[in-house]
Amino acid sequence: MKSLGKDREHGQFFEYRSVDTDMLAWVCERACGERLPVLLSREIWSNLGTEQDANITLDCVGSALADGGMSVTLRDLGRFAQMYLQGGRFNGEQIVPEDFVRACGRGSTPAFEVLYGPFLKHFPSAAYSNQCWVLDSEQGIYSARGVFGQSIYFDPASEVAIVKLSSWPDFINSEWTVNNFRACAAVVEELQRS
């Protein structure tokens, strides 16, 4: 991380970099004086009534890989998704601040379009906010995306969250990602007709 230079002033266009997620985890650890796995377990996971422990990959010096090293069961990830769908609440307890969760579905499309213009062809009001890929800033629809096709699709207005575990052959596949989100939107649309 020390070798990374400053590309631009803060507040200019958005560019996703996994290393920023790792840095965010280190800031959380430093601020709380505890390792990321302990923080996640105490502050989130243990409050969701999960059935299984989550696993977090550690690097060679024992640091958690926050940028893509967590694995959980489908049902437990569904509990996490439901908590976000309920504005950060689960079993009557506020686990994540509601304002933070609401902001996950809102972001700056102009800051996003500089590098992600092709994505805007499919999702014209897309953005990025609070570690989430915003698909529709106007409707507040967003996704938590992982590598190899993992995703959670959130449509809070429709009260629907869709969790998908995958094993794509490619780390990232833009076409499959777009099709995945289109399929999720079609499922929500069909549920609304019922």
TrEMBL record:
Question: What positions belong to coiled-coil segments?
Answer: none
Q: Which Pfam families match?
A: Beta-lactamase
Keyword annotations = Hydrolase
In terms of InterPro entries, this protein maps to:
Beta-lactam-related (IPR001466), Beta-lactam/transpept-like (IPR012338), Diverse_Enzym_Activities (IPR050789)
PANTHER family per the UniProt record, alphabetical:
BETA-LACTAMASE-RELATED (PTHR43283), BETA-LACTAMASE-RELATED DOMAIN-CONTAINING PROTEIN (PTHR43283:SF7)
Residue span(s) of domain Beta-lactamase-related? 4-169
Q: Which GO terms describe its molecular function?
A: hydrolase activity
Q: What is this protein called?
A: Serine hydrolase domain-containing protein
The species this protein was found in: Pseudomonas azerbaijanorientalis
Q: What's the Enzyme Commission number for this chain?
A: 3.-.-.-
